[in-house]
Design brief:
242 residues, alpha/beta, five-stranded parallel sheet, 8 helices
């Protein structure tokens, strides 16, 4: 999900740059309901079918989207500069009527699906952050959905008393929730990239092994290192948002 949000504007740029060509986008796991243009990749005899890898960019000065644009698609740096960093998230309904009854919700996400050991927030730090959100006068909600690729290593921490794990995992439910939050705090995963698109000035990235600069250059997004967490950092940040 995060990769799609970081890449999708390149697809739009391709269509604009080469109007004489017809481009289709095939994606799965619910993403086709938001961005896909074709739902059966075998139904049309395409002249060319391209599979995007969207490689990691750690160790370079490039964002993931830049690396893909340069090395996989062949855009020039000048073209890349014209492309928005993140896709625009469509407006979605709330995942339930209860959302609008809690005006001070803050989303928190501690777990990554593919690389839990290099992006996940350690439980002691996670617990401290959870309490700081409460102490700042907000209601924390864990925004982890148990989707089709849910990693069983991503267990629910004992102190989390409000979460989305029992809610149907759809992009509409995720986006609808994010669009109604006061702020978002999360590790490198799809929800944090979606939140960066929706409210970059109210996102705190929980950084571990993957620097924020590999995802986005927008200086409105803040970050803290969960392996060297300074007590009170989240509380102070939230206090500055009011």
């Amino acid at each position: 999900l995060g990769d799609m949000i970081m890449w999708y504007e390149q697809f739009e740029y391709l269509k604009k740059t080469y109007p004489q060509c017809h481009f289709d986008l095939y994606c799965e796991s619910g993403q086709e309901k938001i961005w896909g243009t074709v739902f059966d990749r075998d139904e049309t005899p395409y002249d060319h079918v391209f599979h995007l890898n969207f490689p990691m960019s750690e160790g370079s000065d490039l964002r993931k989207a830049e690396k893909s644009a340069l090395e996989e698609i062949g855009f020039t740096p000048e073209q890349i500069a014209e492309i928005p960093e993140l896709a625009t998230i469509p407006a979605c309904p709330a995942p339930g009527p209860w959302v609008d009854l809690i005006p001070n919700l803050v989303g928190v996400h501690y777990h990554g699906t593919a690389l839990p050991n290099s992006v996940g927030c350690p439980e002691p730090v996670a617990k401290q952050i959870w309490q700081e959100v409460k102490d700042a006068g907000y209601v924390p909600i864990e925004t982890h959905f148990c989707h089709v690729y849910h990693n069983p290593a991503n267990v629910l921490y004992d102190f989390v008393d409000f979460h989305m794990r029992d809610t149907t995992a759809t992009l509409s439910n995720l986006f609808g929730l994010l669009q109604r939050l006061q702020a978002f705090i999360g590790v490198a995963s799809g929800p944090v990239v979606a939140a960066m698109s929706i409210m970059p000035e109210r996102v705190m990235y929980l950084e571990r092994n993957h620097p924020l600069k590999t995802y986005i250059s927008d200086k409105r997004v803040q970050s803290v290192n969960v392996m060297d967490y300074q007590s009170g950092s989240i509380g102070e940040w939230l206090g500055g948002l009011k």
